[in-house]
Amino acid sequence: MRFILLVIWFSVVLFAKNILILNSYSIQLAWTKGELEGVLHVLKDNKDLKKYIEFMDTKIFRPTPMRMYNYYYYLKNKYKNIDFDIIITTDDNALNFVRKYKDFPLFKKAKVFFCGVNNLSLVQKLDKKIYTGVFEKKEPMENLKFAKKIKKDLKYVYIVSDASTSGTLVVKQYLDAFKGIKNIKFIVLNKKDLNTVLDKLKDYKKNSVMMLLTPSSYYLNDKHVNYIVASQMISKIYNDPMIVHTDIFVNIPKTNIVGGKVTDALSQGEEVGQKVLEYIKGTPVEKIPYTFEKANKMYLNVKNLEKFGINAYELGYKNAIYVNKPTTFWELYKEWIVSFSAVVAVILVFLVVLAFKNRELRNYNQKIKELNQSLEDRVKKAVEEISKKDQLLAHQTRLAAMGEMIGAIAHQWRQPLNTLAINIQLLPEYVEEHGCDEETLEKFVEKNMDTIFFMSSTIDDFRNFFRDDNKKTLFSIKNALEDTLKLINEQLKSKNINVKIKGDDFEIYGSKTQFQQVLLNLISNSKDAIEENKIEEGEILIEIDSKNKKVSITDNGGGIDEKIIYKIFEPYFTTKDLKGSGIGLYMSKTIIEKYFNGKLEATNVKNGAKFTISFN
């Protein structure tokens, strides 16, 4: 098997041919696109060809010697590891470029096939052992006959071009063909500047036609103008028939172009592609002749001819290609008619099937009705059970929070109670030693009343936290946080846990009590994690992100096991054994999602865990 694969690989390497398709212009130009499509269409089934495509874009970038020199070395560097067997060029500039650098390493071994070339003098100059292809030989006399058919009193013919390399060669072809004609005056406007051409045409002769040869390289105020705009601008000045010699110009809208015997880009490409296939099959290049008029076709622009009172179908051209034809009802609404017919056919089939299925459907409807009723009852019962469970969970959460708060009150009261006990114990000794005047008694009472007021304030905070009040208001995040921390501050201090608050405050709409319950759960979780992991210097960082409407609580309590982190928000899931109820995080997530339209997420960070509350 390996041997067979090796043989196949060597065969591909030995017999595969590298082809460079070098285009004079840009792929944006319809003419170049047509030529290239023709070449690729013919060669598409040949698997032994490796094709590389380049565009010189010389309509925009004139082929100056320095540009061509730089372009050669650009290609040489790009394809330094490739030996080209065949080069296909489209139009004159690409062929001229390859001829100039033919003896250079990149092109030296390649056979050259060309299409779209206007320079007919190359027929005598090219080495036929190396070059063959399709000349873009125009048919000026055919176009002159066409001009005489559509303009009976023809006296003048304007030959208009853009002074490009191709355009100048085509102008020469036309003038050479018209040399012996005496009764018609030929006026040449071969200019790069479109304004100059338009000025010359302002007072054009009325008994005339225009032969618009190459309008692709015009410049207007030093900016390139594409052939469509150029043709339309010329048509605004010149109101008589315009004949073209290239297929891409035949059907430009808003012009006076009536057609002509034209070179066809697709045919040019296909013709040169066939020559390449002949060579690959073993025919020497010198045995593959040049092609001239074979790729030319007669195009007639039906609507534009009608503007000048001419019926395109009565001109007597066989095998002409008619463009810009009046749209028939069928052509205009073809897609709609086909679509409508398809829809009608589908509807008819559907109705037939529906008639057969109607009887079964009635029986199914009755069964579905019964099932729906049963399902409604079951869903109602399930909803009631879920509601009861949610209420039970909420109650359990509240009881758990009360347990936390009782512990917090014990911590809060321990120090004040101790102070009161000491003061009362020392009172008799103080009175015995110093006596008891009114001022001393007042100070004693004031000092101990402050302690009692602090303890009373703690009870108020506890009562406010557990007030059954879910009234929605606009409240401050920082204020809710500070009120919550008041309740458990002493617990945190006793565990040597430092709490830091960062960020700018913002307000949200909802129940402050519910939000404080969430904060208490999260801070208590962080406290428990720090305590369980015996962190000597515990830290809880609370960050308020007013810009993104987020609150995050981060601790250094060792984090959450990655194997269970996805389960921590499930009801009754706990890692605290008998100490935990497993409902705190579940209810916290439920409150944030249900009552604040937000999200509660947990992630691990360095040395700990981070809980993030996001509000929409």
TrEMBL record:
UniProt catalytic activity: ATP + protein L-histidine = ADP + protein N-phospho-L-histidine
Gene Ontology molecular function terms on file: ATP binding; phosphorelay sensor kinase activity
Keywords for this protein: ATP-binding, Coiled coil, Kinase, Membrane, Nucleotide-binding, Phosphoprotein, Transferase, Transmembrane, Transmembrane helix, Two-component regulatory system
TM region(s), chain numbering: 336-356
EC number: 2.7.13.3
Domain Histidine kinase: 408-616
Pfam families named in the record: HATPase_c
Coiled coil ranges: 354-392
PANTHER family cross-referenced by the UniProt entry: C4-DICARBOXYLATE TRANSPORT SENSOR PROTEIN DCTB, SENSOR HISTIDINE KINASE
Name this protein carries in UniProt: histidine kinase
Species whose genome carries this gene: Nautilia profundicola (strain ATCC BAA-1463 / DSM 18972 / AmH)
